[in-house]
Task: structure prediction
Amino acid sequence: MLYSEINPIFCLICYTNSFSQFVMHYRSDIEVLRGIAVLAVIAYHAFPHWFPGGYLGVDIFFVISGFLITHIILKESREGVFTLTGFYARRIRRLFPALSVVLGFCVLMGWMILFSQELTLLGSHVQWASVFSLNFVLAGEVGYSDTEIIYKPVMHLWSLAVEEQFYLIWPILLLLIRKESLLLALLTVMICTSFILTMMITNPDSAHFQTIYRVWQLGLGCLLAGLNWSPIFMRSKLIKNILTATCLSTIVFSVLVLRDDDQHRLILAGIPVLATAVILLCRPNLQRWQSIQAVGRISYPAYLWHWPLLSFTTIYCGGHIPTATVLICVALTFALAWLTFRYVEPVRHRRATTVPYLVGCVIAAGLTGLLIAAADGFPERTHFRYLTENLEEYQRTPRTDDECEEHISNYVTQPRLFQYCRSSLRENGPSVVLIGDSHAHALFPGFATVSNKQGYSAFLLASSSCPPFVGFRWGRNPEEKLICQKQINQMLSIVEADETIHQVLIVTRGPVYIHGEVEGKFTAQTVARSLQHRVDPPDMSYANFASGLSTTWQRLLASKHLSRVDYLLENHELDHHVKERIPRPFDYFNLSQQGRDMDKALYQLRMSLYTDAVELALPSDRRANILDSSDVLCNATTCRTFLNGRSLFADDDHLSVFGSHYVAERIQQSLFSKQ
Result:
């Protein structure tokens, strides 16, 4: 049996001296490029620190795809047998068998192990992936509220969406425009326009998924197929071998050196893209590269399988998986890819009715995703009922209430500027107020309860990402810094004017305002490295932090009606979202609960400079005190994340409702003790 009978998409058309004359021929260089591309993508997702540019494998795929598809269309057009229905039928036969199996696997695994919010997201993504529109959804999700990509098991299908959107238009253009020069001119304009737009992008994270910024890569492959250009100097075997070796080395270099966090990464993709184009022009004989060719043959199912396996395994194991487990996932990827290639993909050859059956399978997967998303991930699944209490801990309490709004209206004439305004009232009594940022909001449920028990009404006045330190200019831009100062002044003015307030507790985040987040898993090295980083020097310095806190302390203590103004040191941060450590169903070996708690020594290292700054700001006034949350949350060696099976945290740094009650109950004696 000929290779073309087994896998016709790899049977390419040889160049001749005419645009319209073609001869069928197998191209080993294409197979090798596909193998390199899929290995790059898998290596990037498995070991991103070792292969930071592996994401460029997708760009290589786009060039190859445009080249292959255009060749086939031109050949059939020459023979007078090309039809749109035939073209799309072949695309369905090529893509849908493996795709339907992988989508079905993802839905099944999601049903078994994903929490309802995660399953809702998966259902939505499966729904859009089934109609090849997932890239638009992912582009829209980029930003502050985005979920980490590891929680998106079908995220990688965005590239299929880009290809099929391009092939909705390109074959039609080939049919409508018969004049060769006009077609090539149009294609050149498309490539140039797309690349110019790519150079102008301001949000590469969103642009990464959008088809318009990928047209130049697909179009370059199409142009190579249509030009039928073979430069004279490439007729030399020596020159071809030198160019091939250089371009292959360039691709490997790009995979090892370029980074996905580069602002210009979509432009830098031009390096491996052009290298791929040169190899396609050289047409080298790479028959000796048997292993890479073997990978190339199963590159499509390998690409489909690798990310769901890595994603579900990482989710199940709590966000971090050891190298050995990653290697098992990679090995399983190639095993499943071969089985899919051997037993699933051949169904496209069986009979004419295959196409409607395959379409039906993908539609069924999409409708299942739609149902899952509409049902909010089926939170009442039997094997998840034990998690109801823990999952409720992740719900943040309301930001405002009418009673607080009414109360502060007695003391401000302008509209409220700060985001959080909450109250828990007792009639005709004194009150205490909690001021700060979102960490104050997280503590308020417990603070309000213990305050009421002590006979006080409780209020919350806080702003997100804005510590209430006078003169400490925090913000991502000048406008945010100005707004933050206005919010601080309004909150402090209310406290100064409201003589029913007897005590103030200040609660904020700490090191993150100076150093930003710790990158990666918490180790002595990563935490120490974080302390060397400054978010926005010179504004974001501990000198300004201490000065701002000191000024706030002095300003509040000048109010004679305040008997105490305390500051609660920040609770420990986590290097994971707390829900990553909640037991997953069927976890008989506690895989999902590893690494729950934090090493206290790392917490103390992370907090060291911040704690020194707070102590420096502490006034000599006996009404000012520092309370330490580590006395409550930590023992001699570790800082807790869970207690008696319940989560103390709502995410990676905010306390849960249960956590707020736990902390507040254990600091109330110090908080309400008489001076």
In short: The chain has a mean pLDDT of 88.
